[in-house]
Amino acid sequence: MKKGLHRLLSTLLISTLVLTSAGTAFASSSNTMTGEDISKAQSPVKAVQTELAGKVKAGTKTAEGVIPLTNINASTTSIKSDAVVFDIGDVLPGSTKQGYSRAISLPAKGTIIMEAAAKSAVSTSSLEFGLYKDAALTNAVGYGIISAKTTDPTDADVVTRVIQVPAKGTYYLGIQTLSPIRDEQQAFLVGAAAGYANGGDRTITSGKAIAVGQRDAQTNYFKFKATKTGSLEVQAASGIGSVALCNSKKKALTTNLATKELPTYGVKKGVTYYVKVNSYASSSRGWYNLTVVNKAVSEKSGKSKAKAVTLKKGAKRSGTIIIGDKTADWYKFTLSSKKAVKITIKGATNDNIKADVYDKHGKIGTRSFGYYSGGMTLKSAGKWSKGTFYIKLYRGNSKSSGHYTISWK
Prior knowledge:
The protein is mostly beta strands. 2% of the residues lie in helices and 49% in strands. The chain has three domains: 196 residues, Sandwich (Jelly Rolls), CATH 2.60.120; 87 residues, Jelly Rolls; 104 residues, Jelly Rolls (Sandwich). The chain is rod-shaped, with a radius of gyration of 30 Å.
């Protein structure tokens, strides 16, 4: 910095920027989602005046200060911020423009969420900030323009950019003038915040939320090994995209289902699956939270009509329809006299689950429930004669799976 600017800069105030997650945390249950409300994740910057006189040193040759980088995870509620100061002497390497750049190493594709606001020492000027492939800030991955004014910094225009990171590698966070500074008295104070959300494929575990960096439409495969035979529920905010369950070779076992439907599958302990997420483009969101929940389902059913398990009146039985498994679950109950009967089946599925009812003469009815209904009720038309009745529960088609509870009265 020029010595003549030391006194001038010591009087300038800069807004320290804080990104906050204003989202709502949802209670965890089989019918609710865990994670932030993505539609509100990027809240307006809260400006706080901070004296930077102690950070300005006379005679320096590079910009003062730093733009910190926060690694975003599923529990992130704020992104760290700080400020930089630069003037006519702070020329970027290999460039004629003044500014600041910082190398960062990113482990995978994803997103950089960046905000900035600026104060000018002499006259209003425009600055560029963003993510670049070189220290000279000539090859931008994504950027925004801010107006640096001489007014109070709390009135500074705040600009947010969500930048898609195409692949792992070394990049540069930077701020620069749009043209070289000509006035030796000109200087800039820039407050900025930056966060990185990993958008790469990775292994996930039950109950542990992850943040997935994403701005452009993309497809991810998240590896998951079931620790329990039972249900697997995929939780992500409504509007993110769609989900499918794949085998260990990433071949789809199911059709795509929107995240708002809380896709639920029947899985087998010890088997490796991939949760395929097709996410929609969103220029403002930046990342989404994803959680999978694997719950055990205790089952005692027959695997054929001859081996049907007795279902007592008022008692409940549970079962799982395993993805890719053709086996049906069989139950039976006996009426000692004519009686009106109501069979209640509740559960969750990624497609549909069917139920057939049989008497001594053969099948007397078929019903099914889909992912949108949560179950079904079968009522007799009048009274059924005394005798033994059978219920067969099975997948509605080759892509269906899920879990259920069944009872009758």
